Structures are given as structure tokens and as C-alpha cells.
Amino acid sequence: MGELTGIGPGELLEQAERVAGVIAATAITADGQATWLSASAEPGVARTGDVTLYEGSAGVAWSLAGAAGVLDDARLAGLSVQAARHAVERAPRRAPGPGLYDGLAGIGLAAMAIGDPGLAKAGGALLDTAATLPPQAADLVGGAAGTIVALMATGRHERAVHLGHRLAAMAVRRPWGCFWPDPGEPIGLCGLAHGVAGIVWALAELRHPELDEVVEEGLRYERSWFDPVSGNWPDLRPGASGRRPAMWCHGAAGIGLGRLGLFRTTRHPSAAAEAAVALQVAAADAEHQLSEGVPARGLTLCHGLGGTVELLLTAHEILGEPEHLAAARWILAAALESLGPDPRTWPGGGPDAAGSMGLMTGLAGTLYLLVRAAHPDRLASVGLPGGAPPAG
Description:
By secondary structure, this protein is mainly alpha-helical. It is 53% helix and 4% strand. The two termini are 29 Å apart.
């Protein structure tokens, strides 16, 4: 990466205030609630009303609440409450599933993080409902793994363990390990969002001896797909042609985060070693993207360079190595210079996500990363939601 001059905390917070200003200016508010336009399934058409942690008002609320505390900005704090109210009130209709990023578990988790007693109570009720629903999938985004993470983060350990046993029973076992395929698919995916990395991390967070074997078998399966030449894992989705990305959702950045989470829980050297490989690959990919010009997915978390920034910040937090913080700030400095001064022109995390304010595909996630990079001891990882907060 050359000399890691990066960007200092003061300038990072100035950039964060600029991004926060765009989020505040684009809010649609009424009756004490706030929402934003977001991409729809129809190309070129935006819509309001998304309530999820991934793209909707719950994720924006989470980001604004974290930023408001560091920036000491009452306006952002108030807007985070409005956004959380929007998500909580509409959750049963708009996102009735139990998932973390696309359902009740994530909305409940965000509501409990805002600091408002009424929202905390409502968020807890959503989580209790999520715990009773049958899992619709196994993964971190919309399945049992994500629900487990939210339950553990809010002290619902017994319910999380019960769901963990159900998740373990869903595994397909083979001589080379176990995996959790989508219905009708012959193999399980690698990766944090929809693959084995996110599932085994969630199971390991339970710290339950009866689940240790399935965690190890899941890791054995994902390791069987590792390519030592590229130092990466393939995207096994139909149509992906086995490419090896370095994103949060698929590939090195997300798998590295999952292994860091495992290391934090288990202190197993193999998890740290795999995280180190992922860090090298993701950082090299980020440097390559920046050398080519404006990164196609900007600093967004799911598909953009934000995933690698979050990986580096989490490595700094868990491993205590300052060079990871320096590398994260270098990527942010280079990306911000490339993207230009107006956050409204920055690319979103998908083909139709330009102008998104969402946590995983838009400016809310970038805001959170900028503040976290300035003060990593003040905000916990957004890439491993619900995990143990940083010391300090």
C-alpha cells in the first residue's frame, strides 16, 4: 500500500458530518417517524418504507445513533429515534420474518441500541417474536444464524442455544465437512452473509460444547474450498463462475471477519491464521480497485470497500495491531479523494443503489465506518453485529 499516511480522526469526523448532513437532508419525516428512498426490484424505481437493518430505517437508525454519540449531535440522535420508530411500527407488516438483516431480529436489535426506553421495550418484543418463528433459512442475513446473533447480543441466551441446536440439525453432513445449502441447491456457499463462515461464527458465539463439533465440521467444509494460489474462497452461487471476490457478503473480507469473531471467542490459532490470509487478500484487492479509479461500489459495506475497512478495523480491535487501523485509514483517505467531496454522487452498493442511505448498500454504513475509524474504541463492529463490544 505504500506509505500509510491515511487520514486523521479530525478529518474523518469532518467527512462523517458531511455524510450525516446528506442523510438528514434526504429524510422523509412525518408523525415523529423518518424513512428514506431506497432501491426497488424494478430498475430505476426508488421506494420508501424499507424497515430492515440491511437497507431500511432500522439500519439508518443504528448508524445515526452511533454517530450521534461520538459527534455529540442531538439532531442525529433525534433522527435516529424517528427512524427506529418507523422500523418498529411497520416491522410486522414489512419484514415479518425472523432474520437479522431482513427481518424482526435486526429491527429489534437496532431499536434496543438507540437508547430510548420505549423503543427498547418494543425492540425486545420483536426479538421475542423472532425467537418463536421457525427459521426460514440458515444464514446470517435472513436465517437462524443471524437470529442467534441478535438473541445473544440482547441476553436471550437460552433461546439462542435452542435455536442453535435447530440450526445444527439443518446441516448437511459429508465426509469433507458439513454445510447448509439453500433449498434445491446441492452445495453450501462459502462466505459470511449467506455461507458457512457466518453460520459457524454464530454457533461458536453460543459457547456450547454440544455445538463444537458442527462448528469444526463447517470450518472443514469451507476450508476444502480454499484456493491457496489466490488466498481466497470462491463465490459458489449459480452464475458466479467460481470467482473469488473480497466483499463482506462473499469472499475474503467477510470470511476474515467471521474468523476474527471465532478467534475472539475460541482463541484458536487457526482462526487467526485464516483471518491473516483474508486481510492480505482484501487489502490487496482494495489497493487494486483504488489504483483503477473510482471504486465501483464506493465505501459501501456489503459490496464496496467498506467491507475491507470494517475487516481492518475489527482486526485492530481484536488483535490489537495498530497497522490494521493505519491500513483502514489509508483506504478511507484514498477512497474519499477518489469519490469527491459530495456524498450524494458516491456510488451505492448495487446497480440501482445510487443515492441509497442504507446501512449495507449506502451512506449510513459509510457514516458508521468513518466515525468508527476515527474512534474505534467508541463504536463496536458493524461487520460482526451483536458481538462483544470493544474494550474501553
